[in-house]
Structure of GTPase Obg:
Amino acid sequence: MFIDVANIRVKAGKGGDGVVAWRREKYEPSGGPYGGDGGNGGSIILKADEGIRTLMDFRYKRSYIGQNGEDGRSKKQFGKGGEDIILKLPIGTLVKDEATGGVIVDLKEKDQTFVIAKGGRGGRGNARFATATRQAPGFAEPGKKGEERNIVFELKLLADVGLIGFPNVGKSTILSIVSAAKPKIANYHFTTLKPNLGVVRVGDEKSFVIADIPGLIEGAHEGAGLGHDFLRHVERTRILVHVLDVSGSEGRDPIDDFYKINEELSKYNIKLKDRPQIIVANKMDILGAEEGLQKVKEEFEPKGYKILSLSAATLEGIDELKYEIWDLLINTEIVYETFDEEFIHEDEDTNNSIIVKKEDGKYMVEGEFIDRLLSATYFDDVDSLRYFQDMLRKKGVIDELNSLGIKEGESVFICGYEFEFFN
């Protein structure tokens, strides 16, 4: 089964805590702070890998959690960092935020990497807080939590080559012949309800992926006949093989069919209008096909289209088609589509935001930075408490509370804890 959309949850590892330790060695009577920093948490990293073709693996495992960093040690030794998790994705995967639908990253290049969830920074040990006026800090900093988010993978690069055309023109049969794919084939419309993939081998180190795009119909760009589901798979195929029934066995005009399909493509995405196309005149074994082929050549050869005659039933022209596709592929630059979707711009400063407000008569201070500061404070330690107060002043919290009208002795709630305010 081909999976082209996957919803997963990623959570990076927490940073290790810094430690409080003291130097206690012979001939070192002064000692001093000796606590090391915690290790950074492991990140979740996305990587575009040309060896991966589907999102199948993410159907069975949907949660990925990074390794936590180790706590710091004495003698100023750092804790070991958590190992990163690398998720390999097919080239052409679009990564979106599940909540907003905004695009986070478009993995369109080989070996492209992106940190989707950054591991938490390790906390600083007490040796880091020593100053000329604070020579024996009795506090350290806890590790920061890793980033966590729910994301959606959407695979738009389906294959190098897309087989397009009206239903029942022979696309599935051609796919089964040129590759090892075994699509369901029958003589009725919409046999194919999902894209079928196949790998075509032309020679040593010469192969390409081909997809039978389910039958397109008029109105597909508006969603008719599962049109949107089908058309998005066409967007990133490098070339198109347009299969026409030149025998007219379905009672349709192959020239009219060609223009209708291309109109649907251009209405969905105008850039598809210029995608390289090979026209395959199929069903040459049926009576009347020669006449149809001649009309197709007269119409399209002057416009620069390469036209190949083929009979999927008798295998006539199959090898020529494979070689023609390969020649066009190696001479076609890989160009990926840009998207109208809004990209989410990551902002590291958002994690340092501080909210100071008055709500229902209560003064409140919130924010991730304040939460980390509070967690790092040892309120029984004078130096630690002084550091906490100094940081509130440096970050403008005290000034903002004053501007809101707080008075001496009133309560202020900092991340849920109640403190008495003194200026």
About this structure: The chain is about 20% helix and 25% strand. The two ends are 66 Å apart (CA to CA). The domain at 161-330 is CATH 3.40.50.300 (Rossmann fold). Residues 185-193, 217-228 have pLDDT under 50 and may be disordered.
